[in-house]
Amino acid sequence: MGSEGSRVVVPRNFRLLEELERGEKGIGDGTVSYGMDDADDVYMRSWTGTIIGPPNTVHEGRIYQLKLFCDKDYPDNPPTVRFQTRINMTCVNQETGMVEPSQFPMLANWQREYTMEDILTQLKKEMMSPQNRKLAQPPEALEGIRRIKELNISCLILEGDSKVVVDWLKTEYNGLWNFNNEEEQFLWLGREIEIQ
Fold this sequence. Notes:
Number of helices: 6
Subunit structure: Heterodimer with UBC35 or UBC36.
Strand content: 5-15%
Largest sheet: 4 strands, antiparallel
Helix content: 25-40%
Order of helices and strands: HEEEEHHHEHHE
CATH topology of the largest domain: Ubiquitin Conjugating Enzyme
Pfam families: UQ_con
Domain UBC core: 11-166
Shape: globular
CATH superfamily of the largest domain: Ubiquitin Conjugating Enzyme
CATH architecture of the largest domain: Roll
Protein name: Ubiquitin-conjugating enzyme E2 variant 1D-like isoform X1
């Protein structure tokens, strides 16, 4: 017989399987989702999360991708959380995209009952907070250039409206970005990409 007040500790892999099942079924209104990166990873460490920016904020309509890494001590300790999409938030390191536990109370005060869904939902709420809802965000065009570089693409063939936008950017980029030298970063990142 068990004593009153004792609790059952769910093993790590069972817990992660529960989270995987919940993530696959979908969460709430669909603006937050997550899943495993590699179905063959028996330790279930690497996960990808997505947050669709909340309405009435500078994040509205933007799609943010995150990496969550659940080490072998999860859920006793929190996963590491890193935005892959550039974002300007008070709890995110601007250089690395890491969510800083010291600036994000859920990670700083981690409890075993918290889940990856809780983290993503709380980050979405953080986007709506007064200190983050109006912060200037990195331009999305720069994200596209970064992704092209990550994929080692050296030549783009654009047609239709895309070509018009790129031609406009090539001639009218002056003054488009004033966020952390985005103009210089755009030119530097795009210098090796031929656009036809």
